[in-house]
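User: Second chain of the day. Same drill as before.
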Amino acid sequence: MREIGNIIDERPSGPLGRGAQWLRERRVFLGAGLALVELIWFLASRPGVLTMSVFALVLLVLAVAAMGRVGTGPLRDILMVVAIAQGLILILPLTIGLGVALGAIAGIAILALIVAAAFRLRV
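Assistant: Same format as last time:
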């Protein structure tokens, strides 16, 4: 097996290089922040869940398509931040809907168990 030598990761020089690295290191954090801003806007303006979901899906598809055409660099990182935010925005209604559905199923199951116990004990 070959031994890999030491890898030295040198910080980029110049403000553009440092800015690009800062953006690259914080893509997920910035995407979550953008999603939070969008969520606050959604709660304040109430555009409708379907409208917001469709808009987020279209923006996600456009951002991912543009990432494939753009080379590495700050523009690609910005597109990735937008894509992460839109993905989080799309997951939110699905998660809430799944939680409501699971809550309803659990409620029906508990009700069925109570009814079965009542019939068994003839209360």
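DSSP finds four helices and no strands in the chain.

User: Great, on to the next one.
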